[in-house]
């Protein structure tokens, strides 16, 4: 298992405030504030895992990426960590490219890791039960989404500068097209999350052309 967490109200707040997204910037002062907030969030999450006797090992995205890609050497590093009974943890963050700093979201990192490691499945734990045809209608939960996106209409969260649910859906479809099952389910519902981790279909399942 590998865990990738997002920025939540930590990184997203500063990224929106300083208008920094996936477009390169050279605003060092603002980048430092975003990075500090993400380091703080990561430390809080790791602490919770350790307090509950879950052995995690945090990897900063800045050490994993080189020119917007994860080098192949990281495959062995991550697999070795897992073999030693550690759960690797990483997160969306500000990264460095040739033309400045840019934000690389947790959703994009998940896709990059899938290309590197080819896992059996991916679970996006959200605060909703899945993807809805109509967000105001609880009965409109979509059990399966294929590559036509089921004519979905996207909305954007106020502080989510990395694309909100639209990015999650697009990345989920890309991952599914690698032959990997992808689910979006409610991470606040421990029963549903446990079922998803055990391979049950809970929430919305993404199926790509190559599956």
TrEMBL record:
Protein name, UniProt field: Isopentenyl phosphate kinase
Keywords recorded for this protein, A-Z: ATP-binding, Isoprene biosynthesis, Kinase, Nucleotide-binding, Transferase
Domain Aspartate/glutamate/uridylate kinase residue range list: 1-186
UniProt enzyme class: transferase
One Gene Ontology molecular-function label: isopentenyl phosphate kinase activity
InterPro entries per the UniProt record, alphabetical: AceGlu_kinase-like_sf (IPR036393), Asp/Glu/Uridylate_kinase (IPR001048), Fosfomycin_R_FomA-type (IPR024192)
SUPFAM superfamilies in alphabetical order: Carbamate kinase-like (SSF53633)
Signal peptide residues on this chain, from the entry's feature table: none
Domain of life: Archaea
Catalytic activity: isopentenyl phosphate + ATP = isopentenyl diphosphate + ADP
Similarity comment text for this entry: Belongs to the isopentenyl phosphate kinase family.
This enzyme's EC code(s): 2.7.4.26
GO BP annotation list: terpenoid biosynthetic process
Residues where ATP binds: 8, 164, 168
GO cellular component: cytosol
Keyword Endoplasmic reticulum included in the entry's annotation: no
Residues the record lists as binding substrate: 7, 12, 106
């Amino acid at each position: 298992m590998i865990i990738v967490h997002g920025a939540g109200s930590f990184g997203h707040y500063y990224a929106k405030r300083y208008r920094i997204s996936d477009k390169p910037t050279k605003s060092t002062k603002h980048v430092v504030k975003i990075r500090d907030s993400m380091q703080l969030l990561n430390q809080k999450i790791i602490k919770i895992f350790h307090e509950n006797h879950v052995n995690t090992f945090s990897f900063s995205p800045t050490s994993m990426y080189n020119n917007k890609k994860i080098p192949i050497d990281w495959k062995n590093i991550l697999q070795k960590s897992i073999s030693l009974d550690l759960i690797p943890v990483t997160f969306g963050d500000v990264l460095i490219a040739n033309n400045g700093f840019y934000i690389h979201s947790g959703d994009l990192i998940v896709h990059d890791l899938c290309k590197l490691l080819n896992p059996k499945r991916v679970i996006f734990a959200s605060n909703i039960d899945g993807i809805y045809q109509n967000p105001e209608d609880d009965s409109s939960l979509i059990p399966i989404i294929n590559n036509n996106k089921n004519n979905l209409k996207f909305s954007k969260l106020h502080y989510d500068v990395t694309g909100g649910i639209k990015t999650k859906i697009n990345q989920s479809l890309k991952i599914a097209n690698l032959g990997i099952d992808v689910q979006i389910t409610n991470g606040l519902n421990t029963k549903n999350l446990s079922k998803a981790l055990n391979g049950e279909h809970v929430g919305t399942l993404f199926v790509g052309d190559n599956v």
